[in-house]
Amino acid sequence: MGVIKKRLLLLCLLSYFCVVTSAIAEPLKSTLEAYIVKKDSHGKEIFEKTQNASPGEIVEYRLIYENTGTTVLSGLVVNGPIPDHTKFIGNSAKTDISHDFVVSIDHGKTWEKEPVKRVKKMSNGKQKTVVIPPEQYTNVKWLSNDPIKPKSIQQYIYRVKN
Description:
mainly beta, Immunoglobulin-like, five-stranded antiparallel beta sheet, three-stranded antiparallel beta sheet, globular
């Protein structure tokens, strides 16, 4: 997939993110930042802010919420879609906020805690439980247990590979 299509995916994700969060609360400011993750000559990760991604690159999304109001906001639900033609990188979702973390493998129709498991019928008629790999996730979601105090920020991070 070309850079132009990848840029459209990132822009679509930015648009989706803005629509979802703007409905939450008026004093809640939301920002989505996308970074290409690279390594320097010493193997240390470095981040390059971007709106473009090429095949094979790792993109880190940072979803930042700021309470610009004067009252405490609670019940924040953060939905991070995995853009088409990318794969979620397992164990990359993080935040410093007390939360419940769930994932979807069907574009947000259903949500489950990790690891996502399915019962598969084998050719011999027996059933086997299989773990769905993180690369098949279509969305990630944090259910914040911590309110956002006035003038405070909460950040949620996850990575995908193009």
